[in-house]
UniProtKB/TrEMBL annotation:
Residue span(s) of domain YgxA-like substrate binding: 120-217
This protein's record includes keyword Lipid biosynthesis: no
InterPro entries xref list: NT_sf (IPR043519), NTF-like (IPR029348), WH-like_DNA-bd_sf (IPR036388), YgxA-like_substrate-bd (IPR054515), YgxA_HTH (IPR041143)
Keyword Transferase on entry: yes
Keyword vocabulary terms for this entry: Transferase
Gene Ontology MF term list: transferase activity
YgxA-like helix-turn-helix domain boundaries: 223-289
Domain Nucleotidyltransferase-like: 1-117
Protein name: Nucleotidyltransferase-like
């Protein structure tokens, strides 16, 4: 197959901006993994003006070609927003490997450096808070099916936090990993999905357990945001406005959930909210300090 597909990536491989090329082949019984194509080729480059995705038929072989930039790839690695691409990176066969680029990238994923772990932990914790609080609110409004959906997603974020704590990168087969490293969270997931109780009772019990789990992870969950808040201009920690924090490139991954994360941390005594006078009498700005 590789020989038949070579002409699809050969020209790209000679481009100085191309860092590497990967091939993922369809496996019987796992066809959705390659979006039902016989093969997927991933070309990683510094930048691109070419079409991002193209579909081909090469002598009867159905193939998809994906062109991705380094920036896109690193964003997906840290944010987890394109898990399919990360799984392809884990499992793909290297066809072109400029200066060991893909080898080092795979090594980075397997070793999961502390800086990457810190940022991904902040992202997962913020999303965990959002999903859990929204689920809890829907539960109290008696919208149990909608609450179930949010609590299920909250459990996924809680599970990813457990995997990251172990120094591992969360894979697509997340619950296989969780069963090995965090049986308690796996048990919560199992109880929500196949528990004997009615949906209302299951949610009620699960929310108590998840709230306890969140509080136990609050110090690791806030660590990324805290590391940003500690960097203040000339070293003086005179607080951050919400706008200042939201504009920080380091919170891009979870800026949409930053407000609820800040309020949660304030309510739990992890961040202080300080009033500052505005130009209008009786109106104050808030600054956030550790």
């Amino acid at each position: 197959m590789e020989g038949l597909l070579r002409h699809l990536y050969q020209e790209r491989a000679s481009d100085p901006l191309t860092k590497g090329v990967l091939l993922v082949e369809k496996v019987f019984g796992q066809e959705p993994f390659t979006d039902f194509f016989d093969a997927v080729i991933i070309i990683i480059c510094e930048e691109t003006s070419a079409a991002k995705v193209k579909h081909y038929n090469c002598s009867g072989i159905e193939a998809a070609l994906h062109v991705v930039t380094e920036d896109e790839l690193f964003y997906w690695i840290l944010s987890g927003t394109n898990r399919k691409m990360i799984d392809w990176l884990f499992r793909g066969k290297i066809l072109f490997n400029k200066n060991e680029y893909i080898t080092n990238l795979k090594l980075r994923l397997s070793e999961f450096p502390a800086e990457d772990r810190l940022r991904k932990t902040g992202n997962e914790f913020a999303k965990l808070i959002r999903r859990f609080e929204d689920g809890k609110a829907l539960f109290h409004l008696h919208h149990y099916l909608d609450a179930f959906n949010h609590i299920l997603h909250a459990l996924h974020h809680l599970a990813r936090l457990s995997i990251i704590e172990e120094g591992l990168y969360p894979e697509v087969t997340l619950w296989r990993q969780v069963r090995e490293v965090d049986p308690e969270t796996y048990k919560l997931y199992h109880e929500l999905i196949v528990g004997d109780e009615g949906i209302e009772k299951r949610l009620e019990l699960l929310m108590i357990a998840i709230e306890f789990a969140i509080r136990s992870k609050i110090h690791i969950g806030k660590a990324h945001l805290a590391s940003i808040m500690e960097k203040k201009n000339d070293g003086k920690n005179d607080g951050w406005s919400y706008t200042e924090l939201a504009k920080s490139p380091e919170v891009n991954d979870y800026v949409i959930d930053l407000e609820i994360l800040l309020q949660y941390l304030v309510e739990n005594g992890q961040v202080k909210k300080v009033k500052e006078p505005s130009k209008t009498s009786g109106v104050f700005h808030y600054k956030y300090v550790l």
